[in-house]
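Morning run. Coffee first, then this:
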Amino acid sequence: MTPDEALRRIAFLLEWRGASPYRVRAFHTAADAVRNLPPGPVDADRAEQLPGVGPVTAEVIAQASTGAVPRYLARLETETDPGARAGWDLAAGTTGDCHLHSDWSDGGSPLQDMADAARALGHQWAVLTDHSPRLTTAHGLSRERLESQLEAVAAVNAHMGQDFRLLTGIECDILDDGSLDQDEDLLGRLDIVVASVHSKLRSDPGPMTARMLAAVRNPHVDVLGHCTGRIITGRGRPQSRFDAEAVFAACAEAGTAVEINCRPERRDPPDELLALATAAGCRFAVDTDAHAPEQLHWQSTGYARAARIGLGADRLITTWSLERLLTSRTGRP
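And here it is:
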């Protein structure tokens, strides 16, 4: 066992047990810090000098660096119910990620770096979903810039080999009337479209519901992104109010997947809405919403949530093969 593996496993088990996002994030942060450590023993004092590593995670790193199972992890595994294995198996079976950003919008890394990181995790595919033009604070892509990005993605794929494909996509703003913030003909050229609300998040439930219903029924939309818009860390942001049963029923009917957003500050949808979407028969996309390569590791915590609610791989499009993903898109109602 490597320190990175031990820390990711602990983060997963903490998520499974319903720990605070701060605790979960601490272990992911420490795992990011040790990714480039050379093999071999590392003492705890040295580990604690790494950015984002505290006394607890330093002890985990020191113990795992010798190949041993850290005591913290061993205790968690003893105390956690056997059902956690189902979530870990789901995470191990992931094939892709429908939501990641690059430095073309508000991400911090080039397309190639994001693609390389996804392939290094064993993904078969990942979808580039930079923002649409209305989100100017995130340097959203105009039509012209998105067309240029399609060419850039093709260039990346030309060097990736046969075992991985970077898919074209967008995180498209859902406008006030439920229409999408990009030209319809251009949306039709993309592999995957994630639609998200980023404005007027405190609208009354009626207008917000109508807005979301129009979007998830749009034939170009494949995934409903972070559906409540909530932020649960720092100063936070309350979740949007809408008729969740109606929206999830529309998602199920249209074949639009509901995103299980894995960002520690989002964990969206909340548990009660995740249960409603499951009961409605929705598909789901376990997505990192990654803005940097190291954030792609967050996906396992979303699978913990999926397994706790009883979801299997057949309803999680991020465990599907590339062929099934794209075929399913063209065959949707």
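DSSP finds 14 helices and seven strands in the chain. Good start to the day.
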